[in-house]
Amino acid sequence: QMPESVTVYEVGARDGLQNEATVIATADKVEFIRRLAASGLTTIEATSFVHPTWVPQLTDAEDVLREIDLPGAVSYPVLVPNLRGLDRAVAAGVRHIAIFGSATESFAQKNLNRSVDEQFEMFAPTVTRALHEGMDVRAYVSMCFGDPWEGDVPVGQVVEVGRRLYDLGASQLSIGDTLGLATPGRVHDLLDAFDTAGLGADVLAVHFHDTYGQALANSYAALEACIRTFDASAGGLGGCPYAPGAAGNLATEDLVWMLDGLGIQSGVDVRALAKTSSWMAEKLGRPSTSSVVRALAAQ
Ligand code: HMG
Ligand code: MG
Q1: What's residue 241's pLDDT?
Q2: Are 102 and 112 in contact (CB under 8 A)?
Q3: Ligand number nearest to the C-alpha of 107
Q4: Which residues cross the membrane (predicted)?
């Protein structure tokens, strides 16, 4: 049966803003994060400690973290690929990091300048030290349903990379549909395969991009598999600059609207959140792609 409550893992300030042509001022990012928390979100991925020339939109990571109030009931995970990123995260007082691996060779090269095996050589000491610092580590696995260069990705290959990432010492594995290619049947198949490999709903999260408009249907499929952590991005912002053809994430408002209708608790006030996304859409100079944000704005 379906879960009674779920955690929404908000990625708009990271996955969202990393892919926007307009660079948002640090003060506006901080205001965005503050408003996300005020709408009831309790896990807000704040930024990335990656190489500044790789993601110029997030070069102000230190400044953003300095200005948000780190302690408290809200957690602010950040992306960290390597020891250099971890040094920066430690100095900034970060408690939760996320490493991000690729299920395919092509995307590992494009996104991390590493082969699939080399990415583990980079992540292993990073996770070891993060755990030593008492941090919590999440692991993403990207390109779980298809890759722009390699096409379909075999389920066994995805599960193997996911298993290796998780075994480094992660507390949660987020299944990334980087390109938005998944459909509900494939979601069931992949989640079943993870479950068979000993990675069940208690340690999995799903991370759907909405390129083909399937993210909400895929989320419903994941609910049927009893997944309880859903990544989503306020207003549907986002994509990955190193994954051609990837559009924004599942909009948090679209997810929460469905959860509300199903009577599944998320703690998120969808109307307050939609106002924040409309505000951010103005800063970005383009309307939100979320149906719920547009419908509520028209009321
Ligand atoms: P590299 O060029 O191989 O790095 O990049 P390197 O290890 O050879 O180091 C080269 C120089 O960069 C060194 O400086 C390092 O200190 C510096 P030098 O000694 O030459 O003066 N450096 C750094 N500086 C600051 N912060 C750092 C850092 N690391 C090295 N962290 C690297 C390898 C991993 C760094 C690079 O490929 C990178 O930054 N990639 C990140 C790409 C990215 O952020 N992509 C988007 C996020 S992934 C995503 O969106 C998918 C997801 O949403 C899930 C899904 O949808 O599937 C998560
Ligand atoms: Mg993503």
Answers
A1: 74
A2: yes
A3: 1
A4: none
Classify the complex by whether its ipTM is higher than 0.90, answering yes or no: yes
Task: Tell me, using a 6 A CB cutoff, whether residue 219 lines ligand 1.
Answer: no
Dihedral pair phi/psi, residue 126, rounded to 5°: -65, -45
| Chain centre to alpha carbon of residue 140 | 8
Burial class, 64, CB count within 10 angstroms (exposed 0-12 / middle 13-18 / buried 19+): buried
The ligand 1 atom at the shortest distance from the C-alpha of residue 11 is 53
168 lines ligand 1 (CB under 6 A): no
- Active site (annotated) includes residue 144: no
| Cα–Cα dist 38/212, whole Å | 30
Residue nearest to atom 12 of ligand 1 (CA): 51
Q: How far is CA 136 from CA 79, 133, 142, 174, 194, in A?
A: 12, 9, 20, 14, 22
- CA quadruple 136, 59, 236, 279: dihedral, nearest 10: 120
Say whether pLDDT at 21 is over 90: no
CA nearest neighbour of 110 among 144, 146, 149:
149
Residue 98 has pLDDT above 90, yes or no: yes
Q: How confident is the model at residue 71 (pLDDT cuts 50, 70, 90)?
A: low
Alpha carbon of 48 to ligand 1 centroid (Å): 10
Predicted local distance difference test score (pLDDT) of residue 286: 87
List the catalytic residue out of 181, 240, 251, 284. Answer: 240
CA distance 54 to 112: 9
pLDDT digits (tens, 9 = 90+) for 152-181: 999 999 999 999 999 999 999 999 999 999
Looking at all shown ligands, the one closest to residue 56's CA atom is 1
Asked whether the predicted pLDDT for residue 69 surpasses 80, the reply is no
Is residue 84 in contact with ligand 1, taking CB distance under 6 Å? yes
